[in-house]
Structure formats: C-alpha cells, structure tokens
Amino acid sequence: MEKPDKRPVFFFDIDNCLYPRSKKVHDLMTVLIDQYFVKHLSLTVDDAEMLHQKYYQDYGLAISGLVKHHKVDPLEYNREVDDALPLDGLITPNPELRQLLEDIDKSKVKLWLFTNAHITHGQRVIRLLGIEDIFEGMTFCDYRRMPLICKPHRAMFEKAEVEAGVTSAQDCYFVGRLVFLLLGNKSHIFPADDSHLNCRHAQARGWTTVHLVEPDLPRPAERAAKHEVRDLNSLRSIFPQFFKSSIANRRDQSITSPL
C-alpha cells in the first residue's frame, strides 16, 4: 500500500513572480481588460478604468465583477484578454529560474502553482519559461465553473489545500508578489492577483508567506508577510531545509532579479 504523501507544499504565484514585472505583461493585460470594459459595457476609457479597479478591489478579479453584474461569459473574456496577450514575444526560458527550482529537494516539499488566471494562461506562461515539468500541479481560477473562486477569498485557499493534498495550513508555504498598477495619470498599489492583500490572507490562514517586492518598488508601509524579499533567490537562505544540501550552502549567486 502506497504511503500517504505528507510533504509540505510550496505554492508559487505565476504572473510577475516567476517572471519580472519589467516584462510588462500586467500592463498589457490591464489595457486589454480596459478595452473589454469599453467594448462590451459601452463605457468611456475613464469609466472603464474606474470600474476595472473597483471590481479588482471588491472581488479580487475584474472578471468576477463582470460575471456578477453583467453576465459576461468568462471563457469569452479569457479569449479576448489573457489568451490574447502576446506572450511569445515577451516571456522566454529562464535558466536561472529553472536552476533555482531544480535545486529544491522534491522529496521534502511539493511545488505547486497558485494563480487567479484561468488554466490556459498559467500553462502558457510556464511553458514559455521552460519550467512546465517542475511543478506537480496548479490551482487556478476555473472560468468554466460558477461561481468563480479566486484569491483573496477563503474558498480559494481551501481549494488550493485540497488540490495540493495538504491537511494543515502549517504545511503551506506561499510566494506572492506586489503589484504596481498604473491607471490614467496616477499610480496606485491596490489589491490584485497575489498582491499585498493576498499575502496577508495567506498569512492569516496560517501559511508561511513570502512577499516578493522587486528592487525598483517601494517596500509597503505595512508588511504583508513574515518574509519580504527582493528576489526569489532569497528563498535559499529563508528555507535552507527545502534545498539540496550542496546548493543551500551557496553564497551570493548572481541571478537576475526577480528570477
């Protein structure tokens, strides 16, 4: 009889976490979302930006507000927004990121993806990064099922625990990142996918949480997590127990931030 898998799980966000914010994928996605609001809701650009932000703040995802208030088809939205992103020209294989992930001892911890995107986007990103074989699974916002479940709502964290096969929040580790969103002529940092708010919810649930804040972003006034890092390579020193012993002792590796 096969022994139960009691390994803890390390959840990684995908967008702006496994690739840097400098790729501007989030900026392009914001434009496509605003265009969707303009096209399908007959809004002005300014009104579309405002409603987009409101739905993010109220529901965690713009699509959640669109479904709730406007009966939008999530899969149609996905085709016009996430799947329409020109990722092939933006995201490329990252050997340094792959090396970091390969250096994690999979006999000690399970690697799992945790995203508010639909599965097609998540799969596309990790394929382009060249790391699709590293992770054992993905918890995503399933646009095929209603109601939509996404972070930062409790049900999404519960879904991730069940799908990853953990029975205790103490066995959950999570890396989320800070989103810096430009709307109009003003810059705002506000709750979006795996942002400050999501890290706080994960931390409150009992997960050990790492908040990734890239070097060119200001540190948040209020810490969102127990650990705050500038790049993913810092995971080596925070969690040496999860890295292969010969790797955990390395010092000052030069890896492009944030991997």
Protein model, in words:
- It is a single chain.
- With about 260 residues, the protein is α/β, with parallel strands linked by helices.
- It contains ten helices and eight strands.
- It has helices spanning about 25-40, 45-60, 60-70, 75-80, 95-100, 120-130, 155-165, 195-205, 235-240, 245-250, and strands at about 10, 110-115, 140, 170-175, 180-185, 185-190, 210, 225-230.
- Strand 5 and strand 6 form a beta hairpin.
- The longest helix has 17 residues, at about 25-40.
Topology:
Elements: E1 9-12, H1 25-41, H2 45-59, H3 62-70, H4 74-80, H5 95-102, E2 110-114, H6 119-129, E3 138-139, H7 154-164, E4 172-177, E5 181-183, E6 186-188, H8 196-205, E7 208-212, E8 227-229, H9 235-238, H10 245-248
Parallel strand pairs: 1-2, 1-4, 2-3, 4-7, 7-8
Antiparallel strand pairs: 5-6
Structure keywords:
alpha/beta; six-stranded parallel β-sheet; two-stranded antiparallel ribbon; 37% helix
Q: Which strand-content bin applies to the residues?
A: 5-15%
Major sheet strand order: 3-2-1-4-7-8
Total DSSP helices: 10
Give the uncertain stretches in residue-range form.
180-194, 251-257
Percent range for helical residues? 25-40%
Care to count the β-strands? Answer: 8
Shape: globular
What is the averaged pLDDT score? 88
The quaternary organization reads as: single chain
**Structural class by helix and strand composition:** alpha/beta
Elements, N to C (H/E): EHHHHHEHEHEEEHEEHH
Largest beta-sheet details: 6 strands, parallel
Spatial separation of the terminal alpha carbons: 40 Å
Could you tell me the radius of gyration in angstroms?
Answer: 18 Å
